[in-house]
Amino acid sequence: MDAPVSFVLNGKPVTVTSPRDRMLVWVLRDELGLTGTKVGCEAGLCGACTVLVDQEAVLSCSTALGDVAGKSILTIEGLALDGKLDPVQKAFQDHHAFQCGYCTSGMIMAAWAFLKKKPKATRAEIVAAMEGNICRCGAHVRILDAVESVGKATGGVR
Amino acid sequence: MRRRTLLQTAAAGALTFFFRTPASAAPIEPTRPGAYAEDFNAYLKISADGRVGCFVGKTELGQGATTVLAMLVAEELELDPARVDMLLGDTDLCPWDLPTGGSLTMWHTAPVLRGAAAEARAVLLGLAAKALGAPAADLALKDGALWVKADPKRRTTFGELVQGRKMARHLGKVKPKPLSECTVIGRRVPRKDALAKITGAAKYAGDLRLPGTLHACLLRPPAQGLKLTTADTAAAERVPGVRIVRDGTLLAVLHAQPDTARKALALVKGTFEGTEPDVDDVRIYQYLVDKAAPGQRVMIARGDVAAGEKRAATVVEGEYRNAYEGHATLEPHTSVAKWEEGRMTVWASNQSPFVFRDSVAEALKLDKDKVRIVTPFVGGGFGGKLVAPAAVEAARIARQLPGVPIQVAWNREEDFLLDGYRPAAVVKIRSGLDAGRGAITFWDNIAAGVSQGEAEFAYDMQTNRYQAPAVPDLHPLKVGAWRAPNAHTNAFARECQLDALAAKAGLDPATLRRRLANDPRLLRLLDLALEAFGWEPAPGPTGRGIGLACGAWRQALVVAVAQVAVDKATGKVQVLRFLEAVDVGLVVNPDGARQQVEGAITMCLGQALSEEIRFKGGHILDKNFDTYLLPRFSAIPRIQVVFADSGTTTTQGIGEPPVVPVAAALANAVFDATGARVTHVPFTPARVLEALKRVP
User: Fold this and answer.
1) Are B116 and B142 within one domain?
2) Which of A122, B77, B410, B491 is most deeply buried (CB count within 10 A of its CB)?
């Protein structure tokens, strides 16, 4: 019998009964139905599965369920508050900082975690922070523009 | 279409002599194969609330088809594009279309759709004229309402006129609005897929979660060329909830949880048989040349090549290579299939709904109308999802389990193993320049691994010969269409060869191209690019690291200028700046078009510098993004895009053209920086170091 694991997901407490070594991405997508978090490489190489655990960006394909017990998880579905887009989402929308959209959730979550720590980052710092996230369509320039604009316009994420 | 038609004739194997197509300002109209629906009702449905539904058999891969096609409908019907609801890629609901490839959406489909919307507009005006008792010419139309201009209180709406019914009247061909009256075309329009994609609400095939879905993981051979013979599934079957499906060489482990299915698959022991090719990623080039040699055919020939060589003052011989390259869409091939009441429905990540339908029908020996393809959002295509292997796998399994949705989602390793790669290729060119440095006296081009597609260009080359092999199964690995097939290989060879000729003759490479340009559009585009970049003419290598290349895709023209820095100690190429000037005719959605160009440049940094499928026999050595290197943020240069105002009313697609000259411009920039000519795509640091060693 798998022991229940509790954590806070997008502001609400949840308890799941899954093996503690099950990867978080499957718990989110398969068990909790939050499919905004994507599976790209299953090896921590592409960043498509990035979510926030206690406001730190983590790769949910390489994070075991047991490791998030008692922690607070934020996924792309929880980023907009009361129907209002987060500034990072808004910036991605305004800049058309995506094409196919498959990397977008991971990009937004990675950018959010970075901007939380460093709202007024330089372009070079943003590049370094986003280096782990792959975009195949080549939206990179717009993603950098979008992330840079959040710091400039609003002084960072909420 | 003249040049294209002749090339296709030539590709059929005939020895064809022909003259250059004279450059013409007249718009070139597309010729469309296949049966596009004649009835505008097939494309457009106006609901009682006045919203317009638009049904098109293309798919949204991220290229923005949803947005640009909605713009065309909105233009004719005087609507905000936000009020046009797009439904793409459903073979039951959308009229037939060709695959979403070849940059054909804007070339083939857009004029049909615009014509359909224009006819709908005329029919609506006619219905309103009758309803309001006023001549159609006296009516105004905006945002779904129609009214008498002189008496705005006499008004009606799309919804009232149509009430969701099919419009029975037909007017035949109605001309779309003249460009001068267009208000949507050319405007920046919000992408229609933005909100879904930035909130995580966008559903891709793997996100559907139909009730009762079983996830199928298939047993793969360790190498291409091998097939499953026997399998021991006993250990896997002991995992609670696992089911095994076997159908010939297909063996799938099914489970309600995708990760459990994958883990159980690891417990299956299979034996495989077959022959792996005896070649690897190093020997592949000689392999292709040797295998192609007996099958070489002259595809295009003009003039006397031997005589041309005698007239040459400068002769260069070059050999250009490119490796196999993967599509590496971030969303791997994924499909969900369900067999119910004698019909197979497949929700497929795909570029070609109707090809997928036909492939599934053929594999399952079903009538085509017993198969329906539904297309959710697609996480990238680039040519890789023109073919339906995962959809067929899902359907074969689903056929054995009626009523159960079966999801097949390849993992990254499967996606690399089972992809149809950009073909590896070798192109050898021997060519000469006259003493006046203004004419190519001969151009002798022989290719292995690619066709002669887009090898010719809008240059004045009176004496030339193009050979390509007509050899079936030339490639030891599975190959397929990769964004602008053949064109990037041939443009790389041609543009590097021209650069080498210019350098040897002591001529500025842009000046040589200006002298050779035989199309005023190309000349204008060259000037646009050179001016926007700030090109200063000088024979290379100048040490500045600036390179130029041109390319075409159908009638679309592209000029690329790149600036690089080369670390001579490590061989690493850092791209500093990349500019493309693009002439695709009328640009309908400027921001969407710009995205395609930026994306193509960025994607091809990987093609040029790092992406290569390494293999030994049928074993694909690259299994994930740790060794297969896509461009990351630190590789991205400053990107500039300029569009030519070509004054035409026709629109070429833009997915492929901007891909074509990227690697060539970068290679020429490396030469300009170092004097070393890199001729092997990708020019990895190791290959750059080799090239540097060859510099005298």
Assistant:
1) yes
2) B491
